[in-house]
TrEMBL record:
InterPro entries reported for this sequence: RCC1/BLIP-II, Reg_chr_condens, Signaling_Regulatory_Domain
Organism superkingdom: Eukaryota
Entry protein name: Uncharacterized protein
Annotated stretches, region: Disordered: 18-50
Ranges of the RCC repeats in the UniProt entry: 113-165, 166-209
Pfam families: RCC1
Keyword vocabulary terms for this entry: Repeat
């Protein structure tokens, strides 16, 4: 399948103007010319202990990736920019797993899932916006943050990546349709990709046909590694380092727990691509080792404030499904993390919230019920602490309800609405919170309007008796209140 300006011909080694495939079935994008069999440079993605030469006309620049994941660059012909091979200092702390070069730009994929680009940006080929035409130092491609990338490739003035679930993302120059996406930049087209390369005016995606392994890629959870975390108490520093690597990265989490039946290649707003039973199995394993589990909790808690409010791919949303099931411990750390997760969810833009609700609605009933129970438990704890503070500090507390405290209640109400749209798979009693009655009784003679106004935003927490109590309390309040106050209460 080809896209863009296309001449009859054959696929040749990756040289200026064309691309190549290595086995399997392929999809090409861009310009092809018959008999194009020579050129000045490569733009294939290469792995460790390899070098890749940028394809500028004098072929002076090349990147070198060492076996230990360190990146160096070299300018030939006595260039004043870099006459000798030098370590790319800006990437010194990163463990690089893949590199790629275009005409005047370069890409580097890190073990932790980050993608960095640098060089010329006249056509937006760096993926960092078009405000600047040159970026000499590696910059993080924020738009792809959280997407678990499998491979990267650089064309002449465009860039292409493919995720672990086969979604292809292209950006940069598109004069020959080499992006395969019309005029759209930085937006993916889902394909079952497992191998990509790129030419000056062309991109090539090899489609998945068999059980071929991916190239060296980002870190994801492996059973053997998890077993080592649990059983090996002598390598604590190494275990801690691996836990930090995976659970400090949204991309690494999103790339773990993928459905082994290849359903993750169908990831969409309706299909998460996650094997939730694997998530649960990991939690059951890791929670047996208190030290390792606390490290996981710590990294999750540190990660949550950095989650993007505007994800660009359904793959970004996996983290919102995975993390609650890793925070099931009845302790303060999990309690705080679930509150932070609720805040992150509520920061999502409306379209993102709709996608997440759709993914919730497609969870198996048992997992959806567990999710409801988690947020019901957190909401119950929030209201219990709220009740205790009312007793301690008095009615003034009602006017200072922290937004963090209402987050879990808002998520619980959202889950209730999803549940109602899907035929009440989970019984309503799972949403009820008994503490509501104590709060209403305590406040029935002062500031009751404020109490009811705040709590009535989350009707799912009231059982039948508490709904009747609320109604009676409202009637009592209105009967002894001036018409103006009553009108204000009704407006609220």
């Amino acid at each position: 399948m080809s896209f863009g300006f296309h001449f009859p011909g054959e696929a040749f080694p990756v040289l200026p103007g064309h691309s190549r495939a290595v086995g399997g079935r392929g999809m090409a994008k861009g310009r092809r010319q018959r008999g194009r069999g020579s050129g000045t440079g490569e733009r294939a993605q290469l792995q460790r202990n390899e070098e890749v030469r940028c394809s500028n006309h004098d072929a002076t620049h090349k990147l070198i990736l060492s076996p230990n994941g360190k990146l160096s660059e070299h300018w030939a012909k006595g260039s004043a920019n870099c006459p000798k091979t030098r370590l790319v200092q800006e990437m010194g702390s990163q463990n690089i797993v893949q590199i790629a070069c275009g005409d005047q730009h370069a890409m580097a994929l890190c073990r932790g899932g980050e993608l960095f680009t640098w060089g010329q940006n006249t056509h937006g080929q760096l993926g960092v916006g078009s405000q600047t035409t040159l970026t000499p130092k590696p910059q993080l491609v924020e738009r792809l943050k959280g997407i678990p990338l499998a491979q990267i490739a650089a064309g002449g003035a465009h860039s292409t990546t493919v995720s672990l679930s086969g979604a292809v993302y292209s950006w940069g120059k598109n004069s020959f349709g080499q992006l395969g996406l019309g005029d759209t930049k930085e937006k993916g087209e889902s394909k079952k990709g497992i191998k990509i390369t790129a030419g000056v005016h062309q991109s090539f995606v090899r489609c998945k046909e068999n059980k071929n392994s991916y190239l060296n890629g980002i870190a994801t959870l492996e059973d053997k590694e998890v077993d080592a975390w649990i059983s090996n108490s002598k390598c604590r520093e190494s275990i801690k380092k691996n836990i930090i690597l995976i659970f400090s990265s949204e991309a690494c989490i999103n790339g773990s727990f993928l459905d082994k039946r290849d359903k993750h290649f169908k990831t969409s707003k309706e299909v998460s691509g996650i094997d939730m039973s694997e998530v649960k199995r990991f939690y059951e394993k890791i929670s047996k080792n208190r030290t390792a589990y606390q490290e996981v909790q710590k990294e999750i808690r540190n990660l949550l404030p950095s989650l993007s409010p505007s994800p660009i791919s359904p793959e970004n949303f996996r983290v919102y499904l995975i993390l609650p099931f890793l925070l099931q411990e009845k302790d303060g750390d999990s309690f705080l993390s679930l509150i932070l997760l609720a805040q992150a969810i509520l920061k999502l833009h409306p379209e993102g919230l709709q996608t997440l609700e759709c993914l919730w609605s497609n969870l198996e009933t048992s997992f959806f019920k567990e999710l409801v129970n988690l947020y019901q438990s957190v909401s119950q704890q929030v209201l219990f602490e709220f009740f205790l503070s009312l007793i301690t500090t008095g009615p003034g507390r009602l006017f200072n309800l922290d937004p963090a405290e209402t987050g879990p209640l808002q998520i619980l109400q959202m889950l209730y609405q999803v549940n109602s749209r899907t035929g009440f798979r989970v019984h309503e009693s799972n949403f009820h919170i008994p503490q509501v009655r104590e709060i209403i009784n305590l406040c029935s003679w002062f500031n009751i309007a404020t109490v009811l106004w705040k709590l009535s935003k989350y009707p799912c927490i009231f059982d039948r008796e508490n709904k009747i109590l609320v109604h009676r309390t409202e009637c009592s309040f209105l009967s002894r209140t001036s018409p103006v106050s009553a009108a204000n209460f009704a407006t609220n």
